[in-house]
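Example (one chain per record):
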Amino acid sequence: MSAIATIRHLLVVRSRANAIFGVYRQGALSGPARRAEQTKVGQSDKTRPQRRLGFLIGSGVVAVTAALWLVSASLPGWAASVSAALQERRGQEVYNASCASCHGGPTGGRIDDYPPPHNANGHTWHHPDCALVRVTRDGSSGAPEYAPPGAIPMQGFKDKLSPADIAAVIAFIKTMWTPAQRQAQASFTKDMCFE
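Predicted structure:
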């Protein structure tokens, strides 16, 4: 359909609508439509507070619905963040009591130190979660690849720490790494751990 034909079509539709609803070209109302409008004008003063109230109630319903939607959408993420923070806090307590005396704290150390620092200066982030759990639980004597030759082996903590405490310690150790190290270690874990 050409542009001229489209314009003609719209004009015909408009003129038919004007005829049906009683609106003249200048926008004036015809007899029945004019009387109905005059009746509305006389009543509008009486219904104005009701319209305002309706508008306010409608706006309130929309606002409450939007707020509920936002809260429900953010609750799972918020709950997961709180759970992770609590686990990291527990891990810090256990780490300070059981690990820090050998492996040090959040700073210091070098990558070739033994026992290795678990912070960003060490190499702990080079290992997947399953290997970290195994060495923490069983010690390094069953994993000679994690200690230099002649080094004193790390004791196992399976009799001293619960699986939840070991997981918490690993969660805390990850807080000492850089974001790039955490991302790389998560990739190693995904590729190497099948438990």
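Caption: The longest helix spans residues 31-98.
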